[in-house]
Amino acid sequence: MWGLLLLALPSAQAFELITNDRGIPVSWSKMPVEWSLNADSVPEDLGDDAVYELVAESLAEWEAVEGAYLWFEYAGETDIAKPAHDKQNVVYFEDDWEWDNDILALTSTWSAANGDIVGFDVRVNTSTANWGQGGMDLQNAMTHELGHAIGLDHTPEFYEATMFATTRRGELRKRDLHWDDQDGARALYPDSGSYPRFRPGCSTAPLPASLTMTLAGLLLAAGRRRR
């Protein structure tokens, strides 16, 4: 009986952390993390208001991790439509997709030598990906991509986890965080309880001279849906 119970328990953590070129895990050192939406890039059939809401819901999923301290704040619309280290963290949609057609979305993250993340952009493939009815679920993909934006890499173990590398048409499970995703958030952003949940504002500092850019994507290819 006890042997069966032990086998049913998670055997070990599987989450992976994004590291910079010095091998240091990257994370945000200041809260809140501001983000913007390029509303002009949103396809009409999705609607910019609906996209804003689902991005906000995806961020709220990460904010709600018990024992982790994460806080995001909307900074308004922007016309930025290409990844750039420009002090703005942008979600936008791209018709002219230059990456593999199997990639649904791609997150660019910039970090300093000490591992502090200083920026991210999430680009969504609207060239070859079907986000309509019967296609891919945008909130499913967005929750995954925003996991990259806070410093989590793909988990190699649990296919049901948000940070597992692949998805399929109609999948919704990545909207809700798996316990392994939550463990990753807690590892990067432990809530010590020594500061208030809400702060009056985000302090600013000059950007470091040396930055590392990382890329992470959510894949669609059927051959890579299962390990």
Kindly identify the CATH topology.
Answer: Collagenase (Catalytic Domain)
Supply Rg. Answer: 17 Å
Q: Outline, from the CA principal axes?
A: globular
Strand arrangement within the widest β-sheet reads 2-1-3-5-4-6
Q: How many alpha or pi helices?
A: 4
Task: Give the termini separation.
Answer: 30 Å
Outline the fold blueprint:
Elements: H1 2-8, E1 33-37, H2 48-63, E2 72-77, E3 90-94, E4 103-112, E5 117-125, H3 138-149, H4 179-188, E6 211-219
Parallel strand pairs: 1-2, 1-3, 3-5
Antiparallel strand pairs: 4-5, 4-6
List keywords for this structure.
single chain, 227 residues, alpha/beta, Collagenase (Catalytic Domain), six-stranded mixed beta sheet, 4 helices, 6 strands, globular, disordered N terminus, disordered C terminus
Structure description:
This protein is α/β, with parallel strands linked by helices and 227 residues long. The protein has a single domain (14-192, 208-221), classed as Collagenase (Catalytic Domain) (3-Layer(aba) Sandwich). The protein contains four helices and six strands; from the N terminus they run αβαββββααβ. It has helices spanning 2-8, 48-63, 138-149, 179-188, and strands spanning 33-37, 72-77, 90-94, 103-112, 117-125, 211-219. A six-stranded mixed sheet has the order 2-1-3-5-4-6, covered by helices on one side. Helix 2 packs across helix 3 (138-149). The radius of gyration is 17 Å and the shape is globular. The model is unreliable at 1-11, 194-210 and 221-227 (pLDDT under 50).
